[in-house]
Write a structure and sequence with these properties.
The chain has 272 residues and is mainly alpha-helical. The protein has 8 helices and 3 strands, in the order αααααβαββαα. Helix content is 56%, strand content 4%.
């Protein structure tokens, strides 16, 4: 929700950088995947898991660096509050190693073992489905490093007032629904930080494959200054709430959102 042209460009470039990083990560993941033999899971799972964990940690660290660099440049473009040096937070964004390994096991070896026992699909189809799930979980874990880094920077920066969700390309209805709520501001009542040491804050839910990002805010924004795509989504939510069919509002919103077709949401906001 940048106020400046420079800030808008930085956010768009940041999103592209994170997408490129994900593409590199997935290339490496596909290279490692054959080391997990679906016919010899007990013999190959541990070595595969160790390699995958190292891969996630390496790319997660790159995502953190991208995000902290972006934060400083974005802050400089959007404010005149002086230098912040977000890079000092690099060692504060601590990955949850137990969570990473659990996610990789659940979507990889455990899924293959479960599907082998419960489905009639051939082993190649089972392994292919598991690779897709590992790719999605891996994306969330890698890109999550950058999201956590922005959260930590906003928490540490006295000039920051909150954050806004910047939707990924062609977002799903769930991400669109979260973005429709508008900016999320810090307060004493809200658990804001989202690293392994704290609870997830409002609007900070990310699914596998999700490429939504977080953009810092340095002033409170009235609704008429929200980006037009966000205002459109907010109006869609208000329309969903008016539905009298008895369906849950989120289900009505989903129907309305998906009826519009797949729409690219720009990472920008109107100038002041």
């Amino acid at each position: 929700m940048a106020d400046t042209i420079a800030g808008q460009r930085l956010t768009r470039r940041y999103r592209r950088d994170q997408l490129a990083l994900r593409a590199q990560f997935l290339q490496e993941l596909h290279r490692i995947w054959p080391l997990l033999d679906p016919l010899r899971l007990d013999a190959t799972a541990r070595a595969w898991l160790d390699l995958m964990t190292d891969l996630v940690l390496a790319y997660r660290a790159k995502s953190v660096t991208l995000s902290l660099t972006y934060y400083d440049k974005f802050r400089d473009a959007e404010t005149d509050h002086g230098i912040f040096h977000a890079a000092f937070l690099r060692d504060v964004v601590i990955p949850n190693l137990e969570q990473i390994r659990a996610s990789l096991i659940a979507t990889g070896p455990a899924k293959i073992k479960h599907d082998t026992m419960t489905t009639g699909h051939d082993i190649d189809a089972i392994a292919s489905a598991a690779m897709a799930e590992v790719s999605g979980a891996g994306t969330r874990l890698v890109v999550g490093g950058g999201r956590d880094a922005i959260d930590e920077a906003v928490h540490a920066d006295k000039q920051a007032v909150g954050y806004a969700r910047v939707l990924g390309p062609k977002p799903c209805y769930w991400c669109a629904m979260l973005a429709s709520r508008g900016p999320v501001y810090r307060s004493a009542e809200v658990a804001y930080r989202t690293t392994a040491r704290s609870k997830r804050g409002p609007g900070k839910e990310y699914h596998d494959y999700c490429m939504c990002q977080v953009e810092p805010l340095f002033r409170h924004l009235p609704k008429d200054e929200w980006p037009q795509p966000m205002r459109d989504l907010n109006q869609l939510w208000e329309t969903a709430k008016e539905d009298t069919s008895g369906r849950k509002t989120v289900n009505v919103f989903r129907s309305l959102f998906e009826a519009r077709g797949s729409v690219e949401i720009p990472a920008q906001r109107a100038q002041r």
